[in-house]
Amino acid sequence: MADVDPVVQPAGPVRARADAVRAAGALLTPGEAPPVAGTARDSAGAAPEGAPAAQVLEGPGGPIEAVLFDLDGTLLELDMDRFLPVYLQRLAAWVADLFDPEDFLRQLVRATTAVMQNRDRSQRNQDLLWEVLWAGLDPARHPGARPERRDEALARFEQFYREQFPQLQFMARRRPEAAAVVEAARARGWKVVLATSPIFPMVAIAERLRWAGLSADRFDLVTVLENMHSCKPQPDYYLEVARRIGVEPGRCLMVGNDLRDDIAPARVAGMAVYVVEGLVLHEGEPGAAGAPRGTLAQLLQLFVKNGANGNIFAKPETLHGNNAALE
Predict the structure, then answer these.
(1) DSSP state, 101?
(2) Domain carrying residue 257
(3) What is the pLDDT of residue 311?
(4) Do 118 and 186 sit in the same domain of this protein?
(5) Strand locations in the chain, DSSP E?
(6) Structural contact between residues 151 and 134, judged by C-beta atoms closer than 8 angstroms
């Protein structure tokens, strides 16, 4: 993975705020729910033995009909401990004329935490996040929080994602099996979901998908800030996904690297699970004990070996109709 540019390596208050965001487990901005420091496991060393197909392809409710893929650490290799401080510094600098950086980031943590903890399913994540964020910013200190300038502030965030965020691609590394395993799931006729933390806007997730060599139109659903009413690590998030795609939870397979946010709550929701080795987070999570593990390459082999044709390219494409955008 490329080294971080020392010119943009943050220190002092920005680094402290990055730590606070990581501890809260979420960000308004692109990425997965940040890991707790010290929980990531390096990908070096031999991969474990692949899980038996019966543990992966047969859910608690019957044969698998849908696969949910996490993004960071699963389809895309990205170390959030390195990424977050650099990202936060650039974001704060981009909106410094509209928001006091320290106070803004502090309130951003509060707002994203509120979204993650929310149990009111009548409100979209996006609406709750902005409601809490604006309420906590004093317009006297933050011109961007004034009602008459909020549209300007939102446009500035959009501009950041389109013009500045792509420059951080050097911190990510594409996993060569990612596109193939998604296509293998689609070729079997399964529904396919990008189950990334839905506290990030679609424009940001689309960019991260590009880094992974993927696009939103390869998925039946992409969970984003604008279209969901729940968040990881709540089991309700996984139940909402199952309802959205019309598949019973017991016939869904969740594929992820975070034992706390991906594996344990998906199990509570009644789904089958598969842990992707390489950047495993939150080792020791009780709810993930005994979960099948392996690499993306091993998962791809399971999908292909046990498929009807034995070749992921032997069938026509079977896209089910993407509803990823803003449904």
Answers:
(1) H
(2) 53-79+173-305
(3) 38
(4) no
(5) 58-59, 62-63, 66-69, 76-78, 172-174, 191-194, 221-222, 252-256, 272-276, 293-294
(6) no
Please write the tens of the pLDDT for every residue from 248-296: 999 999 999 999 999 999 999 999 999 999 999 999 999 999 999 999 9
Looking at the structure, do residues 63 and 130 belong to the same domain, yes or no?
A: no
CA distance 4 to 168: 10
Q: Answer whether 229's CB lies under 8 Å from 121's CB.
A: yes
Domain shared by 246 and 100, yes or no: no
Same domain, 65 and 180: yes
> Model confidence over 65-80: pLDDT tens digits?
999 999 999 999 988 7
Rounded to two decimals, the pTM is 0.80
Distant-in-sequence, close-in-space partners of 193: CB < 8 Å, separation ≥ 6: 66, 67, 68, 69, 219, 220, 221, 222, 223, 241, 245
Same domain, 21 and 120: yes
In the chain, the number of structural domains is: 2
